[in-house]
Amino acid sequence: MLAYIVRRLFQLIIVLVGVTIITFIxxxxxxxxxARLLAGKDATPAKIALISHNLGLDRPLYVQYYKxxxxxxxxxxxxxxxxxxxxxxxxxxxxxxxxxLAVAAVLIEMLGxxxxxxxxxxxxxxxxxxxxxxxxxxxxxxxxxxxxxxxxFFWVTLPHWVNSWFGTMWTGLPQTPGRNVWLIxxxxxxxxxxxxxxxxxxxxLEVAYISYMQRAAMLEVIRSDYIRTARAKGLSERKVVLxxxxxxxxxxxxxxxxxxxxxxxxxAIVTETVFNRPGLGLMIYNAIGARDLPVVSGGxxxxxxxxxxxxxxxxxxxxxVDPRIRLGE
Amino acid sequence: xxxxxxxxxxxxVVVAVLVCAGFLLGACGSKSTSTKAGNEGTPKxxxxxxxxxxxxxxxxxxxxxxxxxxxxxxxxxxxxxxxYELQPDGGMKAVPCIAESVDTSPDLTTFTFHLKxxxxxxxxxxxxxxAQDFVDSWNRVTDPNANSPVSYxxxxxxxxxxxxxxxxxxxxxxxxxxxxxxxxQVKLRYPFAxxxxxxxxxxxxxxxxxxxxxxxxxxxxxxxxGTGPYMVEKWVPNxxxxxxxxxxxxxxxxxxxxxxxxxxxxxxxxxxQTMFLEFEKGVLDYSDVPPGLVRKxxxxxxxTSGKWTAKMYPAxxxxxxxxxxxxxxxxxxxxxxxxxxxxxxQASVCNIISEGVDVPATGIIPVGVPGYRPGQDPYPFDTQKxxxxxxxxxxxxxxxxxxxxxxxxxxxxxxxxAGWKAVGINxxxxxxxxxxxxxxxxxxxxxQMFRMGWIxxxxxxxxxxxxxxxxxxxxxxxxxxxxxxxxxxxxxxxRGTADDTQRHDLYAQAEKLILADAPVAPVFFYRDxxxxxxxxxxxxxxxxxxxxxxxxxxxx
Amino acid sequence: MARSKGDKIVADEATASDxxxxxxxxxxxxxxxxxxxxxxxxxxxxxxxxxxxxxxxVGMATEIANIAGVNLAPYDPNQVDYKLSPTGLGSPPSLTxxxxxxxxxxxxxxxxxxxxxxxxxxxxxxxxIAVTMGLALGPVSGFYGGAIDAAIMRLADVFFAYPYILFVxxxxxxxxxxxxxxFLAIGILSWATYARxxxxxxxxxxxxxxxEAARAQGASDLRIIFRHVLPNSMAxxxxxxxxxxxxAIVTEATLSYLxxxxxxxxxxxxxxxxxYVTYFQAGRWWMLTFPSILLVVTVFGFISFGNGLRDATDPxxxx
Lengths: 329, 556, 319
Prior knowledge:
The complex is a heterotrimer.
Chain A: H1 2-29, H2 34-39, H3 45-55, H4 61-73, H5 87-109, H6 112-121, H7 126-139, H8 143-165, H9 167-172, H10 193-222, H11 225-232, H12 237-265, H13 269-274, H14 280-289, H15 293-321
Helix pairs in contact in A: 1-15, 5-10, 5-12, 5-15, 6-7, 6-10, 7-10, 8-10, 10-12, 11-12, 12-15, 14-15
Chain B: H1 6-32, E1 48-50, H2 68-77, E2 82-86, E3 92-96, E4 99-104, E5 110-115, H3 131-142, E6 176-180, E7 183-187, H4 195-198, H5 209-215, H6 217-222, E8 230-236, E9 240-245, E10 260-264, H7 271-281, E11 286-288, H8 294-298, H9 301-304, E12 308-323, H10 334-342, H11 346-353, E13 359-360, H12 383-393, E14 399-404, H13 407-422, E15 427-432, H14 434-443, E16 449-455, H15 461-469, H16 485-495, H17 500-517, E17 520-533, E18 537-538, E19 554-555
Parallel strand pairs in B: 1-10, 14-15, 14-16
Antiparallel strand pairs in B: 2-3, 4-5, 5-7, 6-7, 8-9, 9-10, 11-17, 12-16, 12-17, 13-17, 18-19
Chain C: H1 5-19, H2 28-41, H3 43-68, H4 108-144, H5 146-161, H6 164-175, H7 179-189, H8 191-205, H9 209-216, H10 221-229, H11 235-257, H12 269-280, H13 285-313
Helix pairs in contact in C: 1-8, 1-11, 2-13, 3-4, 3-13, 4-5, 4-7, 4-8, 4-11, 5-8, 6-7, 7-11, 9-10, 11-12, 11-13, 12-13
């Protein structure tokens, strides 16, 4: 087991190194000079050259990468060109918002487990067909489409209806900033209300996926030999399903959820863009536009780190729970 | 939602326009009286003003503040020798702020400012502003190692180079001297009549440089200290900026009413939409209006009943189609450029895409710039003239038109493309991300036509001509690579002419010459459509420089 | 999202593949006959196949028409007509314009129709690029093992760990916006899925008797890979490809939504959604609704077909 973890950690470091190298190469290949953006309107070539020099942009790629690695070993991700803040500090400022969204979305997607189990137990029933069909439809909806429609409905149409039905009540409310009239209406991005719609958007798409996977896993388990044995032993159907069936069928699904959490922690770019929700994804997205190499490389490194660590934890947990799995390849 | 019968919708629009016109008239009437009177009520102190920022500012302190959001915040916190005030004719003029008066030498190269006594820095600095503070502040922003994107405003001063950095950091900005505690002398490298007019820009504001050195640039950037009526309480990047009233403010007349200005930051692709939604809920007192909603907003019950004020404020900004004069096809073919100008469908861009917010441009210099000449419009939309010009050329190759990635710019491009196509000029559209876009344009080897515009740094005809079309500047100012000796000559003479009318004439002549060469096809003059919650706040105004003097705002 | 939905569809195939479908040594024909029989019984998969067929026919017809310079749509999809959008807000659906018109009076039905072509080409070519790369690297990795295997698999790890939509964004920033660059970027970034799948299949197959028999007869490595190994390990790859087309369509839509996909005035579903979203708030529901529905239905078609295909080829689900 220990050897396995050590080997995985070694692979993890290789992946992280690969990711940073790729980021550096890409950011060097990308046209557009951050110095020109910083130079403002009257960007004379001399001025751009000077700013490039001050930022160290005129050094070769490998020198900059070397400096990045040296700084990184001292726990420093450098300073943003555009925002002029330490990247570490920017990540700290945004990680809370992103974590809220990720955890909320993963909690919502857990709803898929009971739905999937129900579907599997009532295979070919009306509700199974209905659930499976809607799962497949929702699965295919792009995040931004669902986000746009939910946003339009809950933040525009619905308030307008409420306004026309309860006009006086609505306008008579004390108009203080940050007040959440309804939970789904955000006051500021730090409030709970601001979380509901983005988390729901992400969560509901995952519910579809999780319930479909849970159904498949459950079906597979139900048909397996040991369930047949359990039934043959005369155990109650309830006990067979919950104790033997679900316990085994839930493992692959929990794996997906764990990896999802890791992936979402790295920032949900599209969701954060649709909802203008500050977070790591939006931070990196804006940094790409500003050609802000330290923020992009730092942000990508952080996102990847969380993702691969989540994967590792999930794999180790998996190995503990399910002794059938071989720790080899 | 709003599926009105077309007949009724027409009536609706008419009513909305009438109501809006009423507001405009009302605003004009009350503007001449010095402070807000009329139906707005009497200002009273206290309360929180909720003002939305459309993006996370890059910086809010003078050395780095560049974009409108950052400058808007800095405008409340920092002050310089001069500040811009809206004139009764709608123009913007620099009036003394920290300066009491200014003496100008006849050759327009030496300016002596006499400072007001008793101007105090905000806590925690708490000391009087002296002439030496200006010397230090301006040296700080022109320091070549500081990478200031806005220091070019100070480029005319002796000791600076064309980019606005100190030519020799060891000597510093040699042209600025503190003659005594309250007298500041500024010597320029060349005669520049409008120098005083430039000094309302935030980069020229006074900062406590000793304090910055003490706390360090990083801490300073997040919580800078100026002399203005409001001071920075907290800036959480990407989330909000809070300003609070300055307890030791030096000027009773502009002391401000509200205790706190809360500025939530809206970032991302649909930020205006979210901002407007928050405004509708009453969380914000001010908002931009998203595209698509302009005419609808004008007809909303909140606007017609007067709970909100929805207005289009002229801005000192122009949008045009730039043409690459280095391009072998476009650069040598004046008739083709003129045909493009005549077939640039300004009206459709303004009416269809910006829904009547922007107005068709008549030239390069927009309304509201001191000296603006109405009545000239060398290239009205005239398809027949354009067709004739195209017919005279035989065949026209397919041209390219570039724009930076932006939903509005893309829609404008589609309309322009349709207009050109109608007269036989086929154009291919491509968009590039802003950073890539500027890089490619500054090389000028692939682009033919491109979207570009100019937002005034300071309200002056000089700002719309010299940095853009003077031969040495046109490659980074307007990206047109335009060059005309007569224009250069006129602009040079204008800079050295003290008399306002005479100088404005020279700039107007230069503009005429430039337009005759058609290196740009003007499309529209910007206006800013803003809604303000009049039920909750009074005293809101959005001036042509895009500033809101928040010390004039009060909560009802 | 760190990975787009599209990528998720593909990526999770790889994890699922370990637990499923060890390709059997059955003869290909028998396998596919059986698969077809089981696929037909799955109603959702049949619906998916119908959607895909309509999509393919319409997409190919518009593409052929495009090459021939003919316009299949009732109107020129890029024809601007301000009379149909007097206030810049389009006009609602009517008999002459079933989906309504957009902000500059273009017929939305015609735009939706030609956008099918964009989705089809992006989906198919992106997947083709990815599969080609996967089929080139995967067998090499699986068959030779050792240092080559380790190098390729670590590279695949990096591609998997890199936040997908960011990766696509970055590549698009290098290439610049445009139709061709969209499918190039998506294709280049999706190879790892197929490489891993093929490698996994090969590892499980290469020790099988018939491969060893072939080797004993002196067949070359290439011959073994292409004659014996690949044909027997294609089932999960076909499943991945079906899902991958859906995923690529979603990614294209997302890129266009973010403004760096298809160039104006051309239409794609994602670009139409991006262009029209502002008008939804003004009550112009038709602009946003129709392209959204088409996008979702098409992706649903590929996903339900892909899932059906997986169930049909999964030996464990055999009754």
